[in-house]
């Protein structure tokens, strides 16, 4: 893993920095519309607040085509919905064109939705030379079990799946989720991890340094060409 590590004092500072970096990155892109896949979680909530607040005037959302890395199989009105959270916090407050917002239909049958969402990605995301959809940017989180997207340790086969999307099952709750697969994530032009919290420091060391139990952690197998970890002081304390 040839990754860049950026460390910050706390989650709020991390969110501020990435919001600023995102605005600069978008401004540097030559294509008129970029494709971005977002994750859910606590750190993205802080980021969403920044995007809807102090950075609202810094980002031209008309240039962004927005997708989700993963989604829980619940209606958008459910508090578990990644889209629902993002919509409440920032999507409803910024001028992102409705036809450039591509949510996972969590309320639909998971197997049917996996196929439908993969087809939607196929229509709107450019493919690379290998024929794999290539997002311009994928934003990931990491759980304290080493999962990323909704690729959990008991479903490592999704890291090499030939499909664009898979139906994942949460190892504890049994909740179904739609997730992008490893090849799609790894073919993105740029991948960013946003990781906070002392509960993740041990796993993060193994993932970054390829030590200990790293082979059991899905996050260890994210090796995009342009890969950056944004980590707060608590998560980074073992590095």
Question: What does the model show?
Answer:
The protein has a single domain, classed as Rossmann fold, CATH 3.40.50.1360. Helix content is 29%, strand content 18%. The strands form 2 sheets. A 6-stranded parallel sheet has the order 1-9-8-5-2-3. Strand 8, helix 6 and strand 9 form a beta-alpha-beta unit. Helix 1 packs across helix 2. It starts with a strand and ends with a helix. The model has no long low-confidence stretch (mean pLDDT 96).
CATH top level?
A: Alpha Beta
Provide mean pLDDT, rounded: 96
What's the β-strand tally? 9
* Unreliable parts: none
**In sequence order, what are the helices and strands, one letter per element?**
EHEHEEHHEEEHEHEH
> How are strands sequenced across the largest beta sheet?
1-9-8-5-2-3
Category from helices, strands and their pairing: alpha/beta
Distance between the termini: 15 Å
CATH architecture: 3-Layer(aba) Sandwich
Task: Tell me the helix content.
Answer: 25-40%
Main beta sheet: strand number and arrangement?
6 strands, parallel
């Amino acid at each position: 893993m040839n990754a860049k590590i950026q460390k910050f004092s706390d989650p709020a500072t991390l969110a501020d920095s990435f919001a600023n970096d995102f605005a600069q990155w978008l401004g540097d892109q030559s294509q008129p519309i970029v494709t971005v896949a977002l994750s859910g979680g606590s750190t993205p909530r802080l980021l969403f607040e920044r995007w809807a607040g102090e950075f609202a005037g810094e980002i031209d959302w008309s240039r962004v085509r927005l997708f989700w890395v993963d989604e829980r199989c619940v209606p958008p009105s459910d508090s578990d919905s990644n889209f629902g959270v993002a919509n409440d916090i920032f999507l409803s407050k910024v001028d992102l064109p409705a036809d450039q917002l591509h949510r996972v239909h969590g309320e639909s049958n998971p197997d049917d939705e996996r196929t439908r969402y993969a087809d939607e990605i196929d229509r709107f995301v450019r493919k690379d030379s290998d024929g794999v959809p290539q997002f311009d940017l994928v934003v990931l989180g990491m759980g304290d079990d080493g999962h990323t997207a909704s690729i959990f340790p008991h479903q490592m086969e999704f890291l090499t799946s030939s499909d664009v999307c898979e139906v994942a099952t949460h190892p504890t709750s049994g909740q179904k989720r739609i997730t992008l697969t490893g090849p799609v994530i790894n073919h993105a032009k740029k991948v960013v991890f946003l990781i906070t919290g002392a509960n993740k420091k041990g796993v993060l060391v193994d993932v970054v340094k390829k030590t200990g139990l790293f082979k059991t952690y899905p996050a260890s197998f994210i090796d995009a060409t342009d890969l950056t970890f944004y980590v707060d002081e608590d998560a980074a304390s073992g590095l």
